[in-house]
Amino acid sequence: MSPPKVSLAGKEYKDNLEKPVFDEILPEKSEASDFPPVINVQTERRAWSLRQQRKHQQCRRIACGALIVIGVAVAALGTMLLVLHFRHQRKSWECRRNGLPETVKVDADNKLIFAKQYHDDSSNTRAMEVLHEYDRGLIAYKDIENNTCYIDRLDEEFEDGYERWQLYEKNEHNERKYLKVISGPIEIDVIRHIGDIHITAHCENAVSVWVMEIDIQEVATDMEIINI
User: Could you tell me which residue ranges the BRICHOS domain spans (predicted)?
Assistant: First the structure.
């Protein structure tokens, strides 16, 4: 007896049966495949070499600029030092004060300026030796004729005094100073203590007193005034 034949033709799925669904749908094949980039080794090496050259050139430019700035600074500093060195090389010169000759001597190492004015009968000018002691901030007017040393405070720096006395060489200075005596004779120990060796040596064997410079409007009859 032969088994029964079953025909599947025309058989439909039942309503409660679902058609098979694939979890993943394969991507469609692109029309053209993306090929990996072609790397030219020689081109990369040349680009790297050019980058290195640019870096080296930039470094050289920076280094050259820095060297130029340093060179200019060193040259300026050298010029300034030479100016400062040679500006105080002059040790003495002549100038004129109130029409009379005056001798100036400079000791830059000890910051001293010495000025000597000569006696003149026509203008009633005394022979005076003046020492500017910048380290101690003192000025001592030594009257040669009456052997008296008038010591006052010096409100000036050595550089300013040096420039001022150099100007007097070309331009005559016409000035009068009025010194008011404000003390009796100063003991030698006080002069040594306050004035140190240069003021002490300048006023040696002379009577020393303290004075202060005042304006002519301040002069009074009861004052002892020294007119220089």
Answer: 122-211
| Residue at token pair 């303290």 | 210
Could you say which DSSP state residue 17 is in? -
Which residues lie closer than 8 Å to 37 by C-beta, 6 or more apart?
Answer: none
The H or E element spanning position 68 is helix 41-87
The pTM for the full model equals: 0.62
| CA atoms within 13 Å, Cβ hemisphere of 161 | 23
Neighbours of 210 (CB within 10 A): 18
Per-residue pLDDT tens for 77-89?
766 655 554 455 7
Beta-strand relationship, 128-133 and 138-143: antiparallel
Q: Are 106 and 131 in contact (CB under 8 A)?
A: no
